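Troubleshooting log. The previous structure file for this entry was overwritten by mistake, so regenerating from the original sequence record. Sequence copied from the archived sheet and checked twice against the printout by T.R.
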Amino acid sequence: MKCTMASDVIDDVATTFKNGDAKQVAKYFSTTVELSILEKEDIYSSSQATLILKDFFAKHPSLSTKIIHKVTSNPNFKFGVILYTTSKGNFRISFEFKNNSDNFILSQIRIEENKG
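Regenerated output below.
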């Protein structure tokens, strides 16, 4: 499910995070994804990244999500940050999209503890 310019890809992905649905998030993945979850960072294939994200969602089910920052003014790049609230703590999730033939693909996800 590559996202065209017409819809808001940041809102769409924030909803998939709220639902804890790694497979839905993966529909936006590039062939490789830079994934950083709680100090562990690497570049993974889309299938590996899906499994890692699925594991994160299983360990940290969402109570709520809130978009706290969006960059959508650049036609070739989009960036979003959400506050991801769980019963075990809060996380700051940032994600980056790159334009690929009028489709925005998810190229990077960072999940950090929100200590603030």
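Residues 10 and 80 are 6 Å apart (CA to CA). Archived copy saved in two places this time.
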